[in-house]
């Protein structure tokens, strides 16, 4: 059986039997060993090179402080990429697989109809105790419905290195701590159901995030923005 066919069947099964039920039941889920060591290493090396070459810039705040970098609130350095840039073949492969996974979730995502996503945001916390205070990705209906984060940190020990993503599921009495370990792929709803924070990191911490848009909410948000401007 061709590899592509096996991969399609696997992704379809994972999407429908694991990702969709988890999103509906608890609002988030993660997959470990998503790409495997070899391809994951290629993604990591490309991200490290961006960092080494000074391609990452301070992350900006959205909302009332839009476009402002405030290191005590958000300490990451970021770069937006499409995946088609030179040398980004492994990143493009990763994004293609994530796209397929979300596509296979299809109409099972409840009210959402996903047909586009953001570019990928490569992020680095430089390991000097920086983090990202508790926030909601999409508090005001900008169209983002699913947040998807791929982690790239080998030999990560949260007791030593910190850097945990802590989710505070709305209306629940518990928090969920996700360690940013190498080759882990995390999904969660982007709206007010999942406030979250990145706890202070004491080692260099890499991740890549994409956001998937609900078509109707995204169109409405663009219309509002056009009316404002």
TrEMBL record:
GO terms for molecular function: ferrous iron binding; hypoxia-inducible factor-proline dioxygenase activity; L-ascorbic acid binding. Keywords: Dioxygenase, Iron, Metal-binding, Nucleus, Oxidoreductase, Vitamin C. It is found in: Nucleus. This is hypoxia-inducible factor-proline dioxygenase. Its cofactor is L-ascorbate. Residues 116-214 form the Fe2OG dioxygenase domain. PROSITE patterns: FE2OG_OXY (PS51471). PANTHER family: EGL NINE HOMOLOG-RELATED, PROLYL HYDROXYLASE EGLN3. GO terms for cellular component: cytoplasm; nucleus. The gene is Egln3. Its main location: nucleus. Its EC number is 1.14.11.29. InterPro entries: HIF_prolyl_hydroxylases, Oxoglu/Fe-dep_dioxygenase_dom, Pro_4_hyd_alph, Pro_4_hyd_alph_FE2OG_OXY. The keyword Oxidoreductase applies. It catalyses: L-prolyl-[hypoxia-inducible factor alpha subunit] + 2-oxoglutarate + O2 = trans-4-hydroxy-L-prolyl-[hypoxia-inducible factor alpha subunit] + succinate + CO2. GO terms for biological process: cellular response to hypoxia.
